Amino acid sequence: MTDAMVRLDAVNRVFRMGDVSVPVLHDVTLDVGSGECVAVVGPSGSGKSSLMNLVGLLDRPTSGRILVEGVDTGRLSPDRCAVLRNRRIGFVFQSYNLLGRHSALDNVQLPLLYAKVGRVERRRRAEAALESVGLAHRADHLPSRLSGGEQQRVAIARALVTDPGIVLADEPTGALDSNTGTEILALFRNLNRAGRTLLIITHDLGVAARCGRIVRLHDGRIASDQANTAPGLVRVPA
Ligand SMILES: Nc1ncnc2c1ncn2[C@@H]1O[C@H](COP(=O)(O)OP(=O)(O)O)[C@@H](O)[C@H]1O
Ligand SMILES: [Mg+2]
Hints:
Elements (H helix, E strand, L loop, with lengths): L3 E14 L2 E14 L3 E5 L6 H8 L7 E6 L2 E2 L5 H11 E5 L10 H11 L4 H14 L15 H13 L5 E5 L7 H16 L3 E5 L3 H4 L4 E6 L2 E7 L11
The chain binds adenosine-5'-diphosphate (ADP) and magnesium ion.
């Protein structure tokens, strides 16, 4: 076992396109400790999303190991991997990825449905998650009736509802105006203060500046990995 929430050990990812091999990640070694807020930055095409897909167990490395809470995920069957992903990893995407025909509350309940949590408990936990992102009053709304920032809050509630060990966010403010983006970052920061482990993928250095550690990817390699000694202090308005 290990203290790391997530550990990547000499991870390589090569995509195959017909006869052509496209190496996308090279020898990536990275530990994310419990309670950290880590930004992964790098230009478009540097491999950030590919890295997130690997850490999130949506993809498998070509070589190297990925451990989640000490479990070597390469040894797990696809079904076991899916269970680990569902229970221990929360996802937030740039485009929110909410189901348009379902209310905010139903969207938030979805991971609990996959986890076979009973109906009453599901509802209770989804309401609490919506409350924690300040959206209890929007529970019955369809995504199309919510602003972008509200939709992203619903997505964050959905990521939190299983009480995951780590939340992965890929460009979570990329589709938002700057004020709304700042609010979402403040929400992440409050989650991290409350002990939540976060991995935030972004090409925006202003976003990274609010994280406690900044990992830079360049052409699929880690170019630097530094503590950020003065992460910006932003608070969610009460
Ligand atoms: N499924 C795939 N098949 C082939 N190439 C891919 C695939 N996914 C990503 N890539 C390539 O990998 C590189 C990194 O992509 P990505 O991880 O999306 O970068 P980023 O998120 O930093 O913009 C790009 O050159 C992209 O074209
Ligand atoms: Mg990307």
